[in-house]
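Q: What residues go here?
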């Protein structure tokens, strides 16, 4: 069952839960804001729903709240950091901001981060760069959670990729995993007792299915674009590990901790006006988006939009009517905020 909870109530409840988990006031403030914003934007799978698992990982020592990015090497517009298994959100925010600082100086900035933890909603950092006026690109490698095309067992991560275009009339932001649905989204549909809009993987008997629970059980999520998503996933894995001189998905598999523990992340910021004026670039962007949005819908009354355009509408609705939360997950986070740190991660089961 879904509930509508005021934004500030959600944020303060998550903040209390994170303080109980051992985060500092500053860390809890930043992380609770990001988790709540994610849910308010309609990405509850990596917003409120991820809080119990994050608390569990802090307790296990898989996330070290004291870990912070350490500069390992720098060459011009490129820097490499070790995240020391710190909080994924704060590590990623630091690196996205550092990439923008480098882009101010060089026109482009690239920060490669190794040995970090789950960044939660990947689009957070792409949005951050776009809203600051930069084109942003970022991706992450993960442990194996998706079969390579032609296999029936997990052999590669779904390695989310994000790109953001800094359009002043509204950023265009693509935030996608290399699987048709991320596991977090499967959990959202399962908790709501709903089928997926499109088949998202295979059941244990190898049948393509729209049953989220059956896909979670088989661990056979469907690569986006079949063999293309599978191929893109392994390329992103290798590129992130190469650029950060860190762990590949295979290395994370060998360690066996899960949920991106020890992963690599890449953050690239680009000055959009490096070779053109602001006026001509923005005019071009607006023409292209307007043409895309004017595409004839396949269903009467439908509307075609570019990635990220509906996010603002969802955010405004959440601020007005309350953030949509799953009742079971909400109860769990409330319990953690009240001091019960032994609650199991219902959202991921």
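A:
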């Amino acid at each position: 069952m879904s509930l509508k909870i005021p934004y500030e109530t959600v944020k303060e409840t998550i903040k209390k839960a994170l303080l109980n988990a051992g985060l500092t006031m500053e860390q809890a403030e930043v992380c609770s804001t990001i988790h709540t914003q994610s849910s308010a934007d309609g990405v509850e799978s990596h917003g409120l729903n991820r809080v119990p698992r994050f608390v569990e990982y802090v307790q296990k020592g898989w996330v070290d709240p004291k870990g912070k990015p350490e500069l390992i090497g720098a060459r011009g517009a490129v820097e490499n950091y070790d995240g020391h298994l710190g909080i994924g959100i704060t590590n990623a925010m630091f690196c996205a901001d550092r990439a923008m600082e480098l882009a101010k100086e060089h026109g482009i900035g690239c920060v490669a981060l190794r040995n970090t933890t789950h960044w939660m909603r990947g689009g957070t950092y792409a949005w951050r760069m776009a809203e600051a006026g930069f084109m942003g690109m970022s991706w992450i490698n993960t442990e194996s959670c998706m079969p390579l095309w032609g296999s029936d067992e997990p052999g590669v991560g779904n390695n989310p990729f994000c790109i953001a275009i800094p359009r002043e009339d509204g950023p265009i932001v693509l935030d996608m995993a290399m699987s048709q649905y991320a596991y977090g989204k499967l959990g959202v549909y399962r908790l709501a007792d709903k089928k997926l809009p499109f088949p998202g993987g295979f059941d244990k008997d190898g049948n393509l299915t729209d049953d989220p629970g059956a896909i979670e059980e088989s661990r056979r999520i469907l690569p986006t674009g079949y063999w293309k998503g599978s191929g893109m996933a392994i390329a992103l894995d290798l590129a992130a590990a190469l650029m950060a001189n860190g762990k590949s998905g295979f290395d994370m598999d060998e360690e066996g901790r899960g949920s991106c523990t020890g992963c690599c992340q890449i953050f690239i910021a680009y000055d959009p006006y490096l070779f053109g004026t602001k006026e001509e670039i923005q005019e071009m962007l607006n023409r292209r988006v307007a043409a895309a949005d004017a595409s004839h819908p396949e269903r009467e009354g439908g509307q075609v939009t570019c990635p990220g355009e509906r996010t603002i509408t969802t955010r405004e609705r959440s601020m007005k009517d309350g953030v949509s939360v799953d009742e079971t997950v909400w109860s769990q986070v409330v319990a953690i905020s009240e001091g019960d740190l032994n609650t199991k991660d219902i959202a991921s089961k």
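A: Context that may help when evaluating the design: Residues 345-349 have pLDDT under 50 and may be disordered. The domain at 70-179+223-270 is CATH 3.30.1370.60 (Ribosomal Protein S8; Chain: A, domain 1).
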